[in-house]
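S.,

As promised, the fructose -6-phosphate run. Input:
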Amino acid sequence: MKWMKVSSYEEMSKVACSIFVKQLQYKPNSVLGFATGGSPVGFYKEMVKSYQEGEISLDQVRSFNLDEYIGIPFNSPASYYSYMVENLFRHVNIPKESYHLPDGNAIDLKEECLRYDKSIEEAGGIDIQLLGIGVNGHIAFNEPGTSFESLTNIVNLTESTRIENARYFESLEDVPTQAITMGIQSIMNAKEIVLIAFGDKKVNSIKQLRGGKITEDFPASQLLKHPNLTVIYGSEG
Ligand code: F6R
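Predicted complex:
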């Protein structure tokens, strides 16, 4: 386990990107695990820069995102699919058939969850997974109380998560009530995990993680059992 303290959001983004760049230089056909939200925006900017400067190519990469809302069109500006296209995919040379997000509009959502874990497995498993962390310790959409053994599944979003994510929608009513998320075990199956967290809002969750107590009440704590975890964190204060 590696703890890397940084002094700015920009530094966090650069350090995280450099880990992915190294991975891609070592294994150009890596399977990458991506996250959405505010934390990785700078990371994706750095990845695009590395691609434009010829440091990396994503033509052989396959990627899997952590989660997607249920019931909003995949091309809605608030979908995680659109977020990924806007922040990364449309700027780099990853083929369309190589990136994957859970399909929140699948007719059989339970079947979609099984299919998603299976397709990760068939790709050879995730080589390196990027993660953010919620103020309550959630990872992906796995809220406190989620079983550490969970695989990709359908979750009801908590009111606090819906309020937090309302910034991406016109109003709180528009925020979906459910999502498909990779489970904690699906995340733990990644060969390497990089967790990024910056800002005063994240100080307490990082403190709790560093505290070392592993409990389902704080989903991210299970990551402490991962053999190859890097936490890149910091705050203004
Ligand atoms: C994103 C995700 C979430 C976020 C977390 C932190 O795909 O699954 O768990 O990583 O909510 O969000 P930000 O980075 O917006 O603070």
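The chain has one domain: 2-234. The CA atoms of residues 108 and 114 lie 10 Å apart.

- D.
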